[in-house]
Write the structure tokens for this entry.
Amino acid sequence: MSQKQRPTAPAWLSLDNAAKIYPAARTQGWMPLFRVSINFVEEVDRALLQKALQRTIKRIPQFGYRLRPGLFWFYLEDQDIMPQVEDDARNPMLPFNLAGSKRFMFRLRCHKKRVAMEVFHVLTDGYGATTFLLTLSAEYLYLKTGKRIPAEGMILDTREAPRREERVDSFPRVARELTQSRGEQSAWQLKGTPIEAGFLRVVTGIMPTEKLLFLAREKKTTVNTLLAAIIMQALMIQKEGTKRQKRRPVKLSLPVNLRKYYGSATLRNFSFYVNVPVQTGHGLDGLDDLITYISHYMGLETMEPQLNARFSANVKAEQNKLLRAAPLFLKVLVLRMMYRMTGERYITSTLTNLGNIKLPAEMAKQVQRMDVVLGSAQKTPIGAAVISCNGHTCLSFSKTIRETGVERHVFTTLIKLGVPVKIESNE
Amino acid sequence: MSYCVECGVQLAQELEKCPLCQTPVINPNAPKQKQAEPAYPDQIEAAIGQIDRGYVRQLSVIIMMVPILIVLLLDIIDGGSMWSPYVIGALVMLWCFLVVPIVFRLRRPYIYVTLDVLALCGYLALIAWMSGNFSWYSTIALPLLVLMGVTILLVLLIIRRIEMVKLHRGALLLLLFGAFLVALEVILDRSIWGAVRLSWSVYAATPMMVIALMAYLLEHNKVLKEEIRKRLFL
């Protein structure tokens, strides 16, 4: 492992507000992970990718940090080593080994034309990881072709020094005094036949973005709401087939990127979520009705004051003097219990949307598409993530159960509505 | 390019069946291309963080050896007094109770229960030998432990292995518990009076046998079972 020089990076960083719960919530066999990948037109040159990785880490140094326990909180510590590009595997997103030194909180994996980045949520959210991967990809293409990709959109210029605002915790900066209770009604939980341990089943549907946009416009909605409505409908059908937890609503968690609200440039975690509940048996089951319902619900819940009041409660809890003074082992116990009691109890599933990634023309020619996959959750056995890039929209379901009812409903519904779907899987 | 005949989705070239409905891909015009580039490699990564059971086993033995050596040493320093076997025996018994289920992969509990009963029998035998009095051990301690061990094993067998309807299973458990009470009184009577005078256990076991018989018959009388279900439904 080569030495790196990055004098502008601080020796350590405290965890951001959203990340604080993750080290405590993780167990021996589970940690919150996600994966963003990019498919190039040609096979990846691994040596060049390694070089590009080193340059990108110098530009965004917090990605090279490791997680360490302090007396009161976990923190991120700089280390004088570089991560290495690894081979991809059929069973992606196994938990990282964080014990000891020389451990990173992300993995960069390579298979044929694809470069995939698996990230522990402590480090960043989907936006931060996508920025890192795009910057890395642009640097890789520069090393490969000799033509520099312009640093626009989410691509950063690796010749620049790291910027302080990219590593700040934006939550406490924008949080207000007035908070809202975090209590919610428990969600109906999907159950199924578990697949073998250490395996995450990934089913990806690749669709033409244009057709999906056309359909969304036809339904007078956004792609995100359209997909959320179809997934919600699929989950509701699953619930109707069981007798368990009849009174609990089906709840789909939709993460919201907070950067656009506050103009933050941070590459740490800065997103929140809205859990959309729908009760079955009330007649709300048609796709058009669900689109209207989700669209209005999200319209209300994603208003800045509403979101702020909810995440400010987390910031306030973190700033509680009693909690701050408690030693780490006690905090871990409390946070772990809190995560078990509230974390995934309030959701049936998640749909993460990283949006439509715009690439510079020079880069677009050499990129096929991008993918995003959520890691397994502790309780919820299925999660969905979507990203659009270069005219392809990839909707990936990641699952720990054998049953295929949800994704089958989603993809067949899209086909019936005129959107062709191509399926890939790691089965 | 193949499509699933059930779902209508286009399938990646390397897929042999549809991941959504498991329908096999049969396209005689485009047989599966071996050179198709799979979306994921064949390599399967091993999960990290598994407990190294061999290491835990060795570590537990080493940790146990520390107090054992200390008490043996103290015995020698104390001029040959013999109290260390009590501590050593208790530690071995605790090791059987606590360490065995953690570090050995015992898929079924029968071996674990048998080992625990044997460990307890052994430790009590050690105490009897050290105190020089075996009568309490042979008349009451050993028979009681064997009775308890056999009963627990039979309960586990009935609950886990023997496939039968719920009422029959309940009936069998009741019969077993009744037999346990009778055997318990037999052992107690023999150790206290030297002879068997069955009394309380019969009073306790008789209603159990009657209820077990009723449960058994009820399972065979569908009309009566339905009538009871109807009256008692919540």
Remarks:
- Residues 184 and 346 of chain A are 7 Å apart (CA to CA).
- Chain A touches chain B at residues 28-29, 87-92, 94-97, 111-113, 197-199, 202-205, 404, 407-408, 411-412, 415, 420-427 (CB under 8 Å).
- Residues 185-324+341-425 of chain A form a domain with the Chloramphenicol Acetyltransferase fold (CATH 3.30.559.30).
